Amino acid sequence: MTQTLKIDFVSDVVCPWCVVGLGGLEGALETLKGEGIEAEVRIQPFLLNPDMVPEGENIVEHIGKKYGSTPEQSAQSRQMIHERAAEVGFTMNTGPDSRIWNTFDSHRLLHWAGATAPDKQGALKKALFETHFTDGRNLTDPEVLADAAAKAGLDRAGAAAVLAEGRYADEVRAETALWVSRGINSVPAVVIEGKYLISGGQPVAVFEEALRKIAGEVAAES
Fold first, then answer.
1. Closest C-alpha to 15, from 182, 184, 208
2. Structural domains of the chain, with CATH
3. CB 201 within 8 A of CB 84
4. In this structure, what are the phi and psi dihedrals at residue 8, rounded to the nearest 5 degrees?
5. Cα radius of gyration (the chain)
6. Three-state secondary structure call for residue 99
7. Cα–Cα distances in angstroms (integers) from residue 178 to residues 12, 17, 22, 184, 187, in the given order
8. Which letter does DSSP use for residue 154 in this model?
């Protein structure tokens, strides 16, 4: 018998560890299919920089202000994250001239996908990751975001309309506030069945072990 876990993947589009975490989660779920464990994964919003200006910020300057990192420390961290992302099949091309963006519109688009085409929400998340980390495009540009939607197999004109009309802004704010109220203050946060938490960009093996244990506990309770 197949057991299906409900998983909320709380993350931001400009969070590099969220790329690693999603790759680790998906790799683990692929392995666990053979054990009869599957999942319904819902992408949930988190804003790392809710007050980010429209023109964005240089990543080295941003990390320096936010965490006190030197340019050398920032470069070392980028290299480590690039390597971890490569382990889950993702190519990161970020460098000292990369920028970090306000992601509110990206989350509006993700909410739209979740509401109208939930089977494509995960694909949109990955397309947005690639738009930012691989291609270095501007996440505040509606054309860029519509391109990401089309890449994920969603209707480009529909995505453009969502962005132009300001749809789902209230919903994104409410969902973001909900996860913060539940104690989520860093991402990625992987919430299983509404009560189990796996934090950070964990490797595939860590997700496998945790999900296997959680699935056993959930089955024992039912």
1. 184
2. 3-176+184-199 (3.40.30.10)
3. yes
4. -105, 120
5. 17
6. strand
7. 15, 22, 21, 9, 14
8. S
For residue 145, give both structure tokens: 């975001």
Identify the CA nearest to 129 among candidates 9, 28, 4: 9
Calpha distance 58→37 (Å, rounded):
42
Q: What is the pTM of this model?
A: 0.97
pLDDT tens string for the chain (222 positions)? 899 999 999 999 999 999 999 999 999 999 999 999 999 999 999 999 999 998 999 999 999 999 999 999 999 999 999 999 999 999 999 999 999 999 999 999 999 999 999 999 999 999 999 999 999 999 999 999 999 999 999 999 999 999 999 999 999 999 999 999 999 999 999 999 999 999 999 999 999 999 999 999 999 998
Contacts of 213 (CB under 8 A, 6+ apart): none
